[in-house]
């Protein structure tokens, strides 16, 4: 039995992870679960999977949850709660499915405690990739990608020599506004932005897909996960999300990983790696699809992707700031406080104000993240 804990068990990745687990219940034991505010769902998960530790966002929610959970489950809350679930159980693998850079400290704590990481929470690697990868190497723990593109690259690289990589290409669906002009983006609604063409995901990542910030975060995530330079990472628009990403080798061979868009496949691969198990997911039949399309990335159409490359190449605290400014801008957009195009303006203005600090330690990362959040919150609406 593999012992697993999940941060963000009530979200899109968290619930799909539990779905994977429930299709092979003999193979897993759930040690810890952490959610934020959805204690109704978390309570159901606790009663079904019987974790030893569970965490919620606030003390008040923890008190309410305690009434509802079996005697063998301890309930925690806040940042301490996330740390308990991340590092304070016997789990050998932690699935990090929180949204945002709040995942950083619990991820570091889990690695410090020797737990392998099933990594969905990409903001953590973007914010502090050098700290996370260095600690993982020191503690000899694996960072197993769950993000579909990175799982694809990971699978394509299985057994390959890293020196034989020419480059990798991440595919981008184009998000909810892929067929709209920049002029049309001026008046788009939150409701429309939340309609991703291929994937059903949490609100924040769905907006990130529409702005192409998601691909920008993924470029930085790939840089850290696979140790590649930014010149070796490309992005192509692929509206169908069937080819999840591919690697080109020095001999001109390209290996791609394909499948229908279903996150349970990369989630399960991270849980069972290096094995593969049967999944309840549907099989891809290329003859049914008929055609696949690819088109050149237009950096002028998607300036948030250009800014991600710029922040990654700059390094130090610049990716931390890119990510934190975006998190605040997306929250403001979702609340109806700013327009869709203001997201990119806020990121650009916050980055322009920031003097990047090289080789930041954790305190510097935390301070830069807080500075960028405050700067992004203060920028005018239009
Ligand atoms: N969804 C997807 O298909 C993919 C997601 N990812 C990445 O995975 C991560 C999770 O995404 P997704 O599942 O879509 O996001 P969701 O918004 O669906 O889920 C976020 C989770 O974080 C929890 N959470 C939020 N705030 C807090 C808090 N203050 N304390 C504790 N828990 C909190 C939520 O709890 P609650 O709801 O109870 O408040 C929920 O469980 C992101 O980094 C995303 O980029 C990567 C690839 C694909
Ligand atoms: C499922 C997944 O991994 C998401 O990150 C997905 O890639 C979003 O799609 P796009 O960013 O390509 O629109
Ligand atoms: Mn992805």
Name of the CATH class of the largest domain: Alpha Beta
Amount of helix? 40-55%
Mean pLDDT: 97
What is the CA-CA span between the terminal residues?
54 Å
Bound molecules: NADPH dihydro-nicotinamide-adenine-dinucleotide phosphate, 1-deoxy-D-xylulose-5-phosphate, manganese (II) ion
Strand order of the largest sheet: 4-3-2-1-5-6-7
The CATH superfamily name of the largest domain is NAD(P)-binding Rossmann-like Domain
Protein name: 1-deoxy-D-xylulose 5-phosphate reductoisomerase
Pathway: Isoprenoid biosynthesis; isopentenyl diphosphate biosynthesis via DXP pathway; isopentenyl diphosphate from 1-deoxy-D-xylulose 5-phosphate: step 1/6
Catalytic activity: 2-C-methyl-D-erythritol 4-phosphate + NADP(+) = 1-deoxy-D-xylulose 5-phosphate + NADPH + H(+)
Binding site for NADPH: 10-13, 36, 38, 121, 123, 202
Topology diagram in text:
Blueprint (H helix, E strand, L loop, with lengths): L1 E6 L4 H11 L5 E7 L4 H11 L3 E4 L2 H8 L7 E4 H10 L5 E4 L7 H9 L3 E4 L2 H18 L3 E3 L2 H9 L8 E8 L9 H4 L4 H4 L9 H9 L1 H14 L6 E5 L5 E7 L4 E5 L5 H9 L13 H4 L5 E2 L6 H12 L3 H17 L5 H14 L8 H17 L4
Parallel strand pairs: 1-2, 1-5, 2-3, 3-4, 5-6, 6-7, 8-9
Antiparallel strand pairs: 8-10, 9-12, 10-11
This protein binds NADPH dihydro-nicotinamide-adenine-dinucleotide phosphate, 1-deoxy-D-xylulose-5-phosphate and manganese (II) ion.
The site of NADPH dihydro-nicotinamide-adenine-dinucleotide phosphate has 28 residues, from helix 1, helix 6 and helix 10.
């Amino acid at each position: 039995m593999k012992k697993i804990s999940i941060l963000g068990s009530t979200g899109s990745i968290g619930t799909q992870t539990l779905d994977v687990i429930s299709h092979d219940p003999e193979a897993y034991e759930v040690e810890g679960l952490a959610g934020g505010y959805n204690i109704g769902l978390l309570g159901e998960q606790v009663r079904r999977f019987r974790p030893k530790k569970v965490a919620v966002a606030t003390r008040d929610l923890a008190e309410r949850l305690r009434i509802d959970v079996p005697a063998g489950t301890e309930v925690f809350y806040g940042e301490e709660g996330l740390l308990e679930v991340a590092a304070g159980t016997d789990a050998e693998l932690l699935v990090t499915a929180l949204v945002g850079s709040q995942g950083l400290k619990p991820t570091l704590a889990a690695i410090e405690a020797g737990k392998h990481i099933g990594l969905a929470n990409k903001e953590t690697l973007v914010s502090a990739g050098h700290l996370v990868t260095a600690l993982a190497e020191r503690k000899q723990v694996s960072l197993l990608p769950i993000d579909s593109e990175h799982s694809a690259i990971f699978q394509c690289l299985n057994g390959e020599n890293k020196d034989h990589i020419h480059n990798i290409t991440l595919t981008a669906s184009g998000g909810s506004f892929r067929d709209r002009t920049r002029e049309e983006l001026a008046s788009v609604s939150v409701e429309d932005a939340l309609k991703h063409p291929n994937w059903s995901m949490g609100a924040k990542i769905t907006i990130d897909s529409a702005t192409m910030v998601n691909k920008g975060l993924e470029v930085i995530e790939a840089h850290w996960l696979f140790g590649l330079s930014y010149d070796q990472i490309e992005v192509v628009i692929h509206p169908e999300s069937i080819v999840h990403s591919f690697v080109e080798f020095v001999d001109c061979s390209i290996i791609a990983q394909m499948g229908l868009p279903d996150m349970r496949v990369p989630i399960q691969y991270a849980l069972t790696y290096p094995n593969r198990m049967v999944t309840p997911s549907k099989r891809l039949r290329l003859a049914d699809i008929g055609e696949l399309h690819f088109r050149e990335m237009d950096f002028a159409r998607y300036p948030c992707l250009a800014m991600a490359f710029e922040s990654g190449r700059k390094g130090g605290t610049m990716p931390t700031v890119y990510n934190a400014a975006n998190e605040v801008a997306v929250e403001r957009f979702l609340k109806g406080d700013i327009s869709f195009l203001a997201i990119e303006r806020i990121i650009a203005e916050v980055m322009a104000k920031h003097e990047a600090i090289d080789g930041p330690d954790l305190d510097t990362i935390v301070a830069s993240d807080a500075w960028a959040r405050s700067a992004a919150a203060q920028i005018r609406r239009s």
